[in-house]
Amino acid sequence: MGIFGKRGRSREERAAEIAGKVASGKGFYGRATRAFLGQEDFARVQQSIGAYRSGHEVQQLLAAGAPTVPATVVSLADTGRLVNFDPVVDLVLQPSGTSDPVTLRTLVSKLRIPRPGDQVLLIADPAQPGAYLYAGDGVNP
Predict the structure, then answer these.
(1) Domain residues for 106?
(2) What is the pTM of this model?
(3) The pLDDT of residue 51
(4) Model confidence over 33-84: pLDDT tens digits?
(5) How many domains does the chain contain in total?
(6) Same domain, 71 and 121
(7) Could you tell me if 57 and 96 lie in one domain?
(8) Which residues of 123-141 are buried (b: 16+ CB within 10 A; e: fewer)?
(9) CB pairs under 8 A, 24+ apart, for 71-74?
């Protein structure tokens, strides 16, 4: 209990709320960010926050025991963006059991960057049926 009563939310929850407002351009933080950065840089911020959110969502799905789909990395391209010093990349993946490749823009660990031919894991995206989220190489998600 704090000096002024009960603290309802943790720092992480408050930070996630602010990041959501920045990404959507709503609230004080979102409007201020959009005004100071301009449209092009604001779009980059939105993409970076989206990449961070998808990584966080994957961790939650893995912890809940969501099934994974193995895939082979076909190609990898750097986007030039970083989130917490980890690169955001464009991956072309070939899920096992399908003939259509999947293209993802995702955040990867700079210590475990996948290379063409590597085996990685995908998780079905609950928000978009038929889409996938990158779940890492299965060794250290």
Answers:
(1) 67-134
(2) 0.64
(3) 67
(4) 888 888 888 887 777 777 667 767 777 787 788 888 899 999 999 988 888 7
(5) 2
(6) yes
(7) no
(8) bebeeeeeebbbbbbeeeb
(9) 71/95, 71/96, 71/102, 71/119, 71/120, 71/121, 71/122, 71/132, 72/96, 72/117, 72/118, 72/119, 72/120, 73/114, 73/115, 73/116, 73/117, 73/118, 73/119, 73/120, 74/101, 74/116
